[in-house]
Amino acid sequence: MMGLSPEKSTNRAAGESLRGWAAALCLLAALGCTKADPAQFKLNMEGLDPADFVASGSTDEALAERIAKIEQEPDPDEEQLSELQNAQSANARAKGLRDLKVALHALFGTPDEPFVLKELQTQPDTPEVGFDLAKLRRAAGPVSSLEDGTQIGLYRQHCVHCHGITGDGVGPTAAFLTPYPRDFRRGIFKFTSTSESAKPTKDDLKRTLKQGIAGTAMPSFALLPEADIDALVEYVKYLALRGEMETALMSYVDAGDPVPLTHEELLSELQNYASMWDSAADEVITPEAPPELDEPGLLASIEAGRKLFLDAKAQCVQCHGPTGLGDGAEKRFDVWNEAKTDTNLAFFSLPKQQLQPRNLRSGVYRGGRRPVDLYRRIQAGIKGAQMPSMGQTPAKPSGLTPTEIWNLVHYVQSLPYEPTSETGSPERSIQRDRN
Amino acid sequence: MSCSKYSIGPLLALVICVAGCERRAVVDPVVDFDDPEIAKVVAAIREGGEGSGSEDGGEAAAAGTGWGTLKGRFLFDGAAPAIGRVSTGGKDADMCGDSVPDQSLLVDPATKGISNVVVFARKVSRQKSPETPTEPAIFDQKACLFLTHVLPVRTGQAMKILNSDPKAHNTAISPPGDGNINPQLPGGGETTVSFKRAQNAPVPATCSIHPWMKAFVFPRADGYVAVSGPDGSFEIKDLPAGEIIEFMVWHERVGGGSGGGLVAKSGWNGGRFKLTIPADGVEDLGDIAVPEAAFK
């Protein structure tokens, strides 16, 4: 550099640093351009401490030897013994976790290649029962399309950004949403046509896909072809069953028991859950239509509903508030948020969201606004949430009668049209700014 | 590259990118599904039929005869904590009052006995009375409190949920892997439910309208569950003798209020201990002094 003019040496220095940056950028780009691994299901560690599942440094044989030696001593060291036993359980749990992954892989496959046991597959004479593997294959896998335009990888195309690859409701967009996307893994769905303890039917899941859920980020997929919607419904059921099975197997691991790894044992456990799904269609609530009412009759029904709303028999006001704004109860959670611990951010667990009773004056009903939808919400409640089942059943003769429920439905339907419910009115003293 | 100050930048960027921003503690064991051993297990599970995994995993159930009893008493080690009050916030004050007792940790000031400690056998090879009881279990509520704080119930046994209060309550029970239960019961109302699945720990039952109300239901396949009384004592009768049984001790205050294994004695990891019950005899654990730290 001696003997060069000052401008030339500055240019040279600049040129060299530019080359340095370019080299670094090329290196970074090369590192980043590796082929992505195929998508994998994530383990459901909700409510569990990962530290409990880390194997101790020693093998089982080594630990057994040391325990035997200590036990032979005249005055065994209790603390050391207990430490070694802890290490043994840690090993057992770590092994159990591996067995759990093997079992789930065997029973359900991967996000790219789904699988269900043949005993759980649909038979041609009972299309409502079981899983259609062809539909699952359409919904699973990376996004692509066939020559005739058939879309493959529907779940990843439409659902994964909110619901996550495992259906855990923790996709990339979930952190920005209120309420969170559904976690399918519990097998609980809020808005169904079935009774209090039953699963949703395929039609319920289809309705949710086609209509979306008003007042939430779940959009309507009505523009998708029917076959695509069927495939997605099948895949959601599959993720739900997989999630339930994972929880069942995890209870073996957590307890330190060996995870069952035989076809018979796993099938028997699976069928406990699958049978609940298969019998959902028998639990649909089909109310008799209310009698045709003229205007005075309807007004009387609404008044009866209003009285029942305020009555101690139904206690609607205790949660929905005396004005139906949903301000009667505080600090409640649905079952998904109850399980979240704000401190468990190590897993990127989303913080708890409170459950608000519905503001009935907004006219926005998440589960559908048809009279029969409102009837079913009151009759059977909302699973996973706090809304109880109010209606009469054979096991619960003291519940509300169909007439009483229809009166309540008429009252609820009338609420958004009361003058006090109108937004923009000068008397905003009982308005809430959000639904 | 010359050692000018401009070349530190790209190097630093490279180091940061490679090091990554990972701070999550993740447990996700890597399983190689191409491994022939694992592939064999997977194939056996999928096709069914011969040999896979833990077929011989049925531990040799000890061939014992006769039946015995397990008993003991849980005492609080230290000064008995005062029973706190939970405010009702004026909800249905005529029925519930202004506050209710906090039932999560009940220690009798006179005897130091701890109530509602659950002791149960985790797995048994045989039962004295395997038939499902025909009498329903009763789960009642009055004065905005559940009358039984922990109710053991057999799978398949009917459980009657009663509301002995004048106004409505709902009883929400969400047992994992079983049907959701959440009936609204008007004053004086009742309903009957049953559980298909045994649970590993008692399941909470709550009321949405009166959120301080919390009790537990414990569905099990056998009747070998005991809940300690006000003096802290418990007894499980007719346990199968002559085999090693693992028992678990549970209390709702452990684990920050969600319930968990009570390490009442050192060596009871996760609240569990193993015992063999003598035939026609009584295994008496005596008075067990539970340290306060066990309830954290």
Explain how this protein is built.
- The complex is a heterodimer of chains A (435) and B (296).
- Chain A contains 14 helices and two strands.
- Chain A is mainly α.
- Among the domains of chain A are: 166 residues; 127 residues, Cytochrome Bc1 Complex, Chain D, domain 2 (Orthogonal Bundle).
- Chain A has a two-stranded antiparallel ribbon with strand order 1-2.
- The longest helix of chain A is centred in the N-terminal third of the chain and has 31 residues.
- In chain A, 38% of the residues are buried.
- The relative contact order of chain B is 0.20.
- The longest helix of chain B is centred in the first third of the chain and has 12 residues.
- Chain B has two domains: 144 residues, Immunoglobulin-like; 73 residues, Sandwich (Immunoglobulin-like).
- Chain B has three helices and 21 strands.
- Chain B is mostly beta strands.
- In chain B, the strands form seven sheets. In chain B, strands 4, 16, 18, 19 and 20 form a five-stranded antiparallel sheet that branches.
- Classes of the chains: A mainly alpha (435), B mainly beta (296).
- Chains A and B meet through helix 1, helix 3, helix 8 and helix 9 of A and helix 1, helix 2, strand 10, strand 12 and strand 13 of B.
Rg of chain A, Å, rounded: 29 Å
Class by alpha and beta content of chain A: mainly alpha
Question: What's the average pLDDT of chain A?
Answer: 88
The CATH class of the largest domain in chain B turns out to be Mainly Beta
Shape by Cα distribution of chain B:
globular
Poorly predicted residue ranges of chain B: 20-24, 51-60
The second-level CATH architecture of the largest domain in chain B is Sandwich
Total beta-strand segments of chain B:
21
Task: Give the quaternary arrangement of the chains.
Answer: heterodimer
* Cα radius of gyration of chain B in angstroms: 26 Å
Shape of chain A: globular
> How many distinct domains of chain B?
2
Percentage of residues in strands of chain A:
under 5%
Q: Give the overall average pLDDT of chain B.
A: 87
In the CATH hierarchy, the third-tier topology of the largest domain in chain B is known as Immunoglobulin-like
Q: What is the count of DSSP helices of chain B, taking H or I runs of 4+ residues?
A: 3
- As a percent range, the share of helical residues of chain A equals 40-55%
CATH homologous superfamily placement of the largest domain in chain B: Immunoglobulins
Number of strands of chain A: 2
